[in-house]
């Protein structure tokens, strides 16, 4: 959308005088959802203020009758508030009917500025707009249903992002913090923490770390054959070797970070505690490490913080490692007062991380440097590296046509309060995808853009793992609970990112086209923390409403196509859990949990959820997004939590089409040329299989066999649903006492053929925590910090 907005002269001279210290901006809304905002401009410099064709490119998955342009005046006499929402007053509204746009032609017109009853205002005449709506199927940038490699041109990367796509890179994908090479379910190289440790240890010039939490006492390498050394000891050693060791750690109410800074005081390690702007509720969630190596820069990006509780393996033990590798690393946030002295279960931790080498590693470095310049103390401590192609790791990766070469693009959610170097020129900012946030800051939300583009490109299936799954709240049904708040509490403006709606619309489009398509989503049984707490119950309520919105879309598409069945045949949600039989000689806790507590019930049942902290999406076994961003508004917004992710694919391992002549005998006219697909079988494919083998367990994975190779097929979805339901039944059983044969479990909600969620399980096992969450909790909690 291109907007060039000007106002007629105000006739009231006194009003002109009062406006002399004020600034103007405009917001663009679809129905009641704000989808864009201009910069604030000085209202006193001219009687005809303009935004000089400020370009706003807006992704749409909304239902609206009008595009509503709201003119806002703000910042009376206070330069600090001139671009913020403080003292903001809506001057008037201009309405552009959506029906005037749907043909795809550019609309160029002056619109009258009106009051809330659509009556033209006197003295503030018109606003000029240029708008073009492009249907997603006709948008060449979206590559709707074309995947990565289909004609007319190869995929150039997500458009309008701060960092572009790079060729000739290398990517290593990691499942969990550590997976031994002998683990059947692991990918080929999955010793993440050991690789991070070794990369830091081998660095000669720089070690830069950004994290939500950094634990100096954590031991990253737990191989008894290697010397034990904590992360803090390693970083101090590198600083003593004249390596520049710079650390950015988030500081907030949950985890202040003062202990980390105090540990490094006077050591040569420079540690800076960073707030996320002025909002105490939000945090820096980026998890990134970048170091130099003999072959260039190496970056690590993903979901794993370098702190306690994160070290785990694909087996995700509950009790049997409490006397060994988890003896000094017990983590259990769901039980008040939990400790290793009282015994397990510990909270298992499933995560996904990646290593990036080649030109894209420079973007990981640039992100850190931009943040350091803004919040860390300028340029003085940063290592001055020449910008040269030495970041390419070796000849194999440098050959852009090599079989194992990757194309990589770095994405972020962040704003100008946390980074330096955003362009001030509006045209350049638009080219880099920057938008204006609620407080006037320049905002990058390229992670959300990357998810939207990947979903729109998808042809066959999507697999998602996410710590949170809620959003597209403008499509949620109103609360039915009488105890809930009024309709304005339905969060129509608080969780409006498009990822959830894009998924359900994609499924619906495929159903209407009569094509196979499946979406698999893995989430934690409940978010990290006490399951009965108000915040957890609110998040579960919002998750329920998101799921129901999506299933409703799928059910309506099935009905329109005349398909009888259940929406879970196209969209299924899963969670992870474990049960562990007693082993002779295992750790014996000297103390006991409180009687009749959730803690002791879980201990007696020897079961617990596996926390899903991974945030990744795999599309058609071609493309993968790995990062820290959850599927919620905090992560996708850009003006809330800061996040980082990479999108990557192997150009030599894409889905391709070929034709084959099918001879079927008589009658001869049935013989024909048919178009078939040659499936992607590169490292993205192998990584998905490794994850599925980890989650399904050896028996279920072997039983599924070749069905796992084609996730778009009905038989594959049916196989996973059946195995997951069997695992849930064993997990929830009051009599089962063995080891759970697999971790993948059906999320404990039912789905009707009409897409309604059915309360088949009231409470999570061993708790009094509602599976559906609490609508009263979600209505009474502050929404923005939680959602």
Structural account:
With 787 residues, this protein is an alpha+beta fold. The chain contains 17 helices and 33 strands. Helix 8 packs parallel to helix 9, helix 9 runs parallel beside helix 10 and helix 13 crosses helix 14. The chain starts with a strand and ends with a helix. The relative contact order is 0.12.
Quick summary:
This protein has 787 residues and is an alpha+beta fold. It contains 17 helices and 33 strands.
Topology:
Elements: E1 2-3, H1 13-18, E2 23-30, E3 33-37, E4 41-42, E5 54-55, E6 66-74, E7 89-97, E8 107-112, E9 126-131, E10 165-175, H2 192-202, E11 206-211, H3 231-240, E12 244-250, H4 258-263, E13 270-274, E14 288-293, E15 296-302, E16 349-350, E17 352-357, H5 359-376, H6 395-398, E18 406-415, H7 426-431, E19 435-436, E20 442-445, H8 446-457, E21 461-465, H9 499-513, E22 518-522, H10 534-561, E23 571-579, H11 598-605, E24 607-609, E25 611-612, E26 616-619, E27 623-627, H12 633-636, E28 643-649, E29 656-662, E30 672-678, H13 683-696, H14 698-704, H15 714-732, E31 744-746, E32 750-751, E33 757-758, H16 775-780, H17 783-786
Parallel strand pairs: 11-12, 12-13, 16-25, 21-22, 22-23
Antiparallel strand pairs: 1-5, 2-3, 2-4, 2-6, 6-7, 8-9, 10-17, 10-18, 11-14, 14-15, 15-17, 18-20, 18-28, 19-20, 21-26, 23-24, 23-31, 26-27, 27-28, 29-30, 32-33
Helix pairs in contact: 8-9, 9-10, 13-14
Q: Assign an overall shape.
A: globular
Number of strands: 33
Return the average pLDDT rounded to an integer.
Answer: 89
Major sheet summary line: 18 strands, mixed
The Rg value, from CA coordinates, equals: 27 Å
> Which structural category fits the helices and strands?
alpha+beta
Q: What gap, in angstroms, lies between the N and C termini?
A: 28 Å
- Enumerate how many helices there are, as a single number: 17
The low-confidence runs, each spanning 5 or more residues with pLDDT under 50, are 1-6, 8-19, 79-83, 390-398, 482-493
Protein name: phospholipase D
Catalytic activity: a 1,2-diacyl-sn-glycero-3-phosphocholine + H2O = a 1,2-diacyl-sn-glycero-3-phosphate + choline + H(+)
Keywords: Calcium, Hydrolase, Lipid degradation, Lipid metabolism, Metal-binding, Repeat
GO molecular function: metal ion binding; phospholipase D activity
């Amino acid at each position: 959308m291109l907007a060039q907005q000007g106002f007629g002269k105000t006739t009231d001279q006194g009003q002109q005088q009062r406006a002399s210290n004020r600034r103007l901006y405009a917001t663009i809304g679809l129905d009641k959802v704000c989808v864009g905002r201009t910069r604030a401009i000085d209202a006193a410099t001219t009687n005809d203020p303009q935004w000089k064709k400020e370009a706003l490119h807006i992704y749409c998955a909304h239902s609206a009758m009008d595009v509503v342009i709201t003119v806002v005046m703000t910042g009376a006499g206070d330069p600090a508030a001139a671009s913020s929402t403080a003292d903001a007053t809506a001057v008037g509204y201009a309405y552009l009917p959506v029906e005037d746009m749907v043909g795809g032609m550019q609309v160029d017109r002056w619109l009258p500025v009106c009051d809330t009853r659509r009556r033209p205002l006197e003295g503030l005449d018109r606003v000029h707009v240029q708008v073009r709506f492009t249907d997603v199927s006709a948008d060449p940038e979206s590559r709707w249903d074309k995947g990565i490699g289909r004609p007319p041109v190869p995929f150039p990367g997500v458009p309008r992002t701060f960092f572009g796509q790079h060729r000739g890179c290398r990517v290593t994908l990691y499942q969990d913090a550590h997976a031994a090479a002998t683990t059947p379910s692991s990918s080929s190289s999955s010793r993440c923490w050991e690789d991070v440790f070794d990369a830091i240890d081998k660095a000669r010039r720089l070690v830069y770390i950004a994290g939500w939490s950094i634990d100096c006492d954590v031991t990253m390498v737990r191989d008894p054959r290697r010397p034990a050394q904590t992360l803090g000891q390693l970083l101090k050693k590198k600083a003593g070797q004249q390596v520049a060791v710079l650390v950015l750690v988030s500081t907030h109410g949950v985890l202040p970070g003062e202990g980390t800074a105090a540990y490094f005081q006077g050591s040569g390690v420079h540690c800076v505690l960073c707030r996320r702007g002025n909002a105490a509720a939000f945090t820096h969630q980026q998890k990134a490490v970048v170091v130099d190596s003999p072959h260039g820069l190496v970056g690590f990006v993903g979901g794993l913080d370098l702190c306690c509780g994160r070290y785990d393996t694909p087996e995700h033990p509950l009790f049997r490692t409490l006397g060994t590798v988890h003896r000094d690393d017990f983590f259990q946030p769901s039980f008040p007062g939990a400790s290793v002295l009282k015994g397990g279960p510990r909270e298992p931790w499933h995560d996904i991380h990646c290593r990036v080498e080649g030109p894209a590693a420079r973007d990981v470095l640039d992100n850190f440097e931009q943040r350091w310049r803004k919040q860390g103390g300028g340029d003085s401590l940063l290592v001055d590296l020449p910008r040269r192609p030495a970041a390419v790791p070796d000849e194999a990766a440098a050959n852009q046509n090599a079989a194992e070469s990757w194309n990589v693009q770095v994405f972020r959610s962040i704003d100008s309060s946390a980074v330096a170097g955003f362009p001030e020129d509006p045209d350049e900012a638009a080219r880099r995808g920057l938008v204006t946030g609620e407080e006037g800051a320049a905002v990058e939300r390229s992670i959300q853009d990357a998810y939207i583009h990947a979903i729109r490109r998808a042809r066959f299936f999507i697999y998602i793992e996410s710590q949170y799954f809620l959003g597209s709240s403008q499509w949620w049904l109103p609360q039915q609970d009488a105890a809930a708040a009024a309709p304005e509490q339905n969060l129509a403006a608080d969780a409006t990112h498009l990822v959830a709606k894009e998924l359900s619309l994609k499924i619906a489009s495929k159903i209407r086209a009569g094509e196979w398509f499946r979406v698999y989503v893995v989430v934690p049984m409940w978010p990290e923390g006490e399951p009965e707490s108000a915040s957890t119950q609110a998040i579960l309520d919002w998750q329920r409403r998101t799921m129901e919105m999506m299933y409703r879309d799928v059910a309506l598409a099935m009905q329109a196509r005349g398909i009888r069945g259940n929406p879970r045949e196209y969209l299924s949600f899963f969670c992870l859990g474990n049960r562990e039989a007693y082993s002779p000689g295992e750790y014996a806790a000297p103390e006991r949990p409180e009687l009749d507590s959730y803690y002791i019930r879980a201990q007696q049942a020897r079961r617990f959820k596996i926390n899903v902290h991974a945030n990744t999406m795999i599309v058609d076994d071609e493309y993968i997004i790995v990062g820290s961003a959850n599927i919620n508004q905090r992560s996708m917004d850009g003006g809330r939590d800061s996040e980082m992710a990479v999108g990557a694919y192997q150009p030599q391992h894409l889905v391709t089409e070929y034709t084959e002549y099918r001879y079927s005998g008589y009658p001869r006219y049935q013989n024909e040329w048919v178009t078939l697909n040659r499936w992607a079988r590169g490292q993205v494919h192998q990584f998905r299989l490794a994850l599925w083998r980890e989650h399904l367990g050896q028996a279920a994975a072997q039983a599924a066999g070749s069905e796992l190779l084609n996730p778009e097929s009905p038989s594959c979805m049916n196989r996973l649903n059946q195995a997951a339901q069997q695992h849930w039944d064993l997990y929830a059983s009051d009599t089962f006492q063995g080891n759970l044969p697999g971790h993948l479990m059906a999320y404990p909600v039912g789905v009707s053929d009409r897409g309604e969620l059915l309360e088949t399980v009231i409470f999570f096992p061993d708790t009094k925590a509602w599976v559906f969450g609490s609508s009263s909790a979600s209505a009474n909690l502050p929404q923005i910090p939680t959602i």
